[in-house]
């Protein structure tokens, strides 16, 4: 009779240990549609404000430099991808859908968009990331 409660306790402890040891990377299931993305095209370049961020960062700022003589239009959202074993994966967002609002980036100007980490359905872990806007990507690292 005493063996059953002890076995149940050990099994529950094992389950807690297994789930506690999983990394947040298990949430990364969707491969990015484009595995290669440039950081610039047609005079427009994007980059993150910093090349390295701590895991505790709250907002990642993406700078958009439009050195062309034409307006450049983007959506209002910045998306995130993480590289795992040479494959880029989409970092899931809390929202399931997004508005089609747009922002015009004037010619020969620098503008920026922010990505609030609280909008992610994912806790940042160390590794190689890229912020994406349209078909462009701004690479950066996350460190402890």
TrEMBL record:
Signal sequence extent: 1-23
Record PROSITE patterns: PROKAR_LIPOPROTEIN
UniProt-recorded name of the protein: Bacterial Ig-like domain-containing protein
One Pfam family here: Big_14
Sequence ranges assigned to domain Bacterial Ig-like in this UniProt record: 41-130
Keyword Signal included in the entry's annotation: yes
Alphabetized UniProt keyword annotations: Signal
